[in-house]
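Progress against Task 2.4 (sequence-to-structure conversion) is shown through the following example record, which the project officer requested during the mid-term review.
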Amino acid sequence: MSTPITWLYVPGDRPERFAKAVASGADVVIIDLEDAVDAARKDEARDNAVRHLAERGARTGPALHVRVNDLATRRGREDLRALADAPGLDALRLPKIDSADDLAVVDEAFGDRPTAAHALIESARGLANVEAIAAHPRVAGLALGEQDLAAALSIGLESAFDQLRLRVVLAAAAAGLGPVPMSVFPDVRDEEGLIASCAHGRGLGMLGRTAIHPRQIPAIRAAFRPTPEEIGRAREVVDAADRAGLDGVGALALPDGRFVDAPIVTKARGILALADRTS
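Structure tokens generated for the chain above:
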């Protein structure tokens, strides 16, 4: 599967919403057993998730992930054991990962089953260990839990998150993982704010975003779509490189005097591919 752009959370205790989430157009649907579910209904939510995964049938539509409870708790470990044999599970979403050692319980529950995990970095300790977490063989992606980080670190300025985001983006890239998606935008009515926030995150090297409501999906997809100007410049670069036979090495000058080498061509091809995926 190509890199997801849209990730949609759906509460595990609301099974009547699962089909709507799958039909929302999201690239990934995340059945949430953690923050979105009241403590009294967490066992029910787990049962709903396992049942839905078992009934999934043919692998069509979005990827299905499950966010389990904190792995340091009994409930989190029970979530893992219940999901270990679920046939329709594409990946786990693991909250509050503080070190690579936290992944040991996943290996114990899943054994040789090659189920990927997306680690949520939600604490100062997790940030301090993010490079080792990213390098763990079961980790397929990283994400920031910004609401938890804001509380843990007493962050009040939105701009203060940029350094943390860049650190996670760098750790993911160094480990050969895919781009880091943005954390949820909590105001489902503020589409303008959502789009502006996505544009800022894209400038930091992030790609895609988790959503808490289907209405956010089109705005997120549109926000990560390259602008017509970006597409035009990228097309000019790629066309010139193709004509010159520039393939991984060398450089050339465009008619307007701009210097183009292999990294610029690679970036331009990425922009055109992203434009195709979000059109």
